[in-house]
Each structure stands twice: as C-alpha cells, then as structure tokens.
Amino acid sequence: MKYTTLGKIGPRVSRLGLGLAALGRPGYINLGHAEDLQQNYSTQAMQWHTCKMLDLAWDAGIRYFDVARSYGKGEAFLGFWLKNKSQKVEEPFVASKWGYTYTADWKVKAQVHEIKDHSVTVLQKQILETRQQLGVNPDLYQIHSATLESKVLENTQVLRRLAQLKARGMRVGLTLSGAQQAVTLEKALGVNVEGVRLFDTVQATFNLLERSTADMLTTARQEGLGVVIKEALANGRLTFRNPDVHLNPKWQLLKTQADRLNTTIDALALAYVLKQPFVNVVLSGAANPEHLKSNLKALDIQWDQEAEEVLQELEETSETYWQNRKKLDWN
Ligand SMILES: NC(=O)c1ccc[n+]([C@@H]2O[C@H](COP(=O)([O-])OP(=O)(O)OC[C@H]3O[C@@H](n4cnc5c(N)ncnc54)[C@H](OP(=O)(O)O)[C@@H]3O)[C@@H](O)[C@H]2O)c1
C-alpha cells in the first residue's frame, strides 16, 4: 500500500480508503448493489459482510475508512469491527459525516431514503449518535454534501460548533456534491472562525467523466487541505458492469486502454484519479471482495500519455454528469 500525509499537518494515511455507502444499508444507487448483498438484508448478514470487507481492506494495507450517519447501520458495523479487532500497531483513520438522516427504514425501495438538514440542532444530535455508534470519536467529521443552497457555510452557529469540536482535537471537513462543487469549495476555503481557517479536508467527486473540480482542488491542496476523492468509479459506470463499456464506441476506449495496460477497467479509472497531484486519498466503494481486490490493482498501474490522450474523450460537462447520476436507481 502507498501512504500520504492528509493535508499540511495531517496524519499519514493510506492512498486508498474504503467507503461504506454501499455496505451499511440495503438500498443504494450503485450499479449491481442488490446483487452484491445477495439480497440478504438481515442485520447480522450485512454486519458480517461489512466486517469481511473491512478485514480484506485492512489486510491489503487500507487504513482510511469513510462512513456517514445516513449510511443506515454503517457506523454501527464499523464500530463493531473496531471494537472486535485485535490491538494493532497502526490505527485506522475513521471519517464520518453529519447532515443527512437515514429514513429508508431498512428497505431497498423507500419514498425517501435520506433527509438533508445542516442545522446546528442536527449537528449536535448526530455527533452524539456517531460517537455512540462508532464507540470512538471520529478522527474526521465532515459536513455531508455541503452546497451553496444549504447555506451551511454561512451558518455561524454551525461553524462555531465545528470550531469547538476542532479545538478539542477532531478534524473538521466537508464533502461536496452536484454541478457546483468547485464554487462551493471556493467559498469553503474562505471560512474562518476567529481568524483560523475551519476546514482541514475536502471530499469531492472527481473521475474520468467529471473533472470540473481539478483547479479548485489544486488550490485547496496548496492551501493545506487534505483532498479525498469519492465516486471515482462514477457509482459503477466506470466498470465492466456498465453496458455502454461494451456497446458504445466512446466507452469501449476504456476497455481497449485497460487491455493495453493489462489491467481492469475499474483499476484504470482509479489510477487516473490516484495520479492527480492534488489527490491524497481515493475511496473505493466496492461492496464485494472481488471488486475490492480489482480496485487495489490501481496502485500498480503506470498511467501514460496514450491513456491520458485517448481517455480525454470520456469527459462530460458537470451538468450532464449529475443529470445521469440522478437517473441511477436505488437497488
Ligand atoms: N456526498 C458524499 O459525501 C458521498 C457521496 C457518494 C459517495 N461517498 C463516499 O465515497 C465512497 C465511494 O463512492 P461510491 O461507492 O458512491 O461510488 P464509486 O466508488 O464511484 O462506485 C462504486 C461502485 O463501483 C462498483 N465496482 C467497484 N469495483 C468494481 C469492479 N471491479 N467491477 C465491477 N464493479 C465495481 C461497485 O460495485 P460493488 O458494489 O459491486 O462492489 C460499486 O457499485 C462511498 O462509499 C462513500 O464513502 C460520499
């Protein structure tokens, strides 16, 4: 495994992290999610499956784990694994998020899967729940999908509460979402509390299709923030599972380049993100062991000029990307 320093003063963490969005609840938008869970949604089975994925990740050298209050029982499953893991020399780095409340009642299909509320009341309630579920303080607590519309970056009560958590040793960050990620990050870089910049890290969607945040993430990194990438596989669209990869000439370029570099489509897509100079950590969203093993190959790929030029073709506008993402079915 390769390691990196998360931000100017940050801890050493692994360059690949494991995200639990698809592991903590029966329903999620990733392609083939139901199949991965073999539609066995008993809490025990899903906890066992999550621990198996966490063990595999740990044995592969992954030391960065990303969860959220809204990922169903994701925090509880991670807390169970942390408590039952034998003492280790190295500490796992645990990142969680607040701001969404899970409302799907453990169902795959639900009217409303999660409710967004970036108020100080929710922050206060969820930090207590997160501590209780994880059994430990998270190393990093992030605003979940901060947007200009949610006005959380202007909410002084929330910003002060986050500064208090930071003063007590917790790192504070934000995650972004939607076609306005770069503008939102620019605003977040200007957020100070009592003259101190508030955010230590940013988590953003960046991949072969959605590249619009590259410049602003470069600025964030230069200003000392840790940069974490989510949805590096576009929720499974940048894998063999996407029918386009087999039918659509533009997408077939992915397969040709993967074959040329003797690797898998997902590993190639992850390698593109890992090679970006502004990136510290890339999150794998794999929910099945074979997929995680395949993702790990990304660390050994020599990205080259031909791949760079040929796969430029895949870039989409942010609007197109987020519209397509909206169409993904909860399964
Ligand atoms: N707003 C936010 O803060 C936010 C939003 C989204 C995600 N995140 C974080 O980022 C993490 C990763 O993002 P993500 O899971 O949404 O998306 P992702 O990483 O772009 O996509 C993961 C999907 O790719 C599939 N996949 C991976 N390797 C594969 C392979 N070798 N072959 C076929 N399919 C493969 C996975 O399938 P399987 O499930 O079958 O393995 C899963 O469906 C999440 O777990 C979460 O921690 C945060």
Reported CATH architecture: Alpha-Beta Barrel
**What is the name of the CATH topology?**
TIM Barrel
SSE string, helix = H, strand = E?
A: EEEHHEHEEEHEHEHEEEHEHHHEHHH
The tally of helices reads 13
> What gap, in angstroms, lies between the N and C termini?
32 Å
User: Could you say which small molecules are bound to this protein?
Assistant: NADP nicotinamide-adenine-dinucleotide phosphate
State the CATH class.
Alpha Beta
What is the subunit arrangement here?
single chain
State the share of residues found in helices, binned by percent. Answer: 25-40%
The pLDDT mean sits at 94
Rg over CA atoms, rounded to whole Å, is 19 Å
Overall geometry comes to globular
Secondary-structure-based class equals alpha/beta
Number of domains: 1
CATH superfamily: NADP-dependent oxidoreductase domain
Largest sheet: 8 strands, parallel, barrel
Quick one: how many beta strands?
14
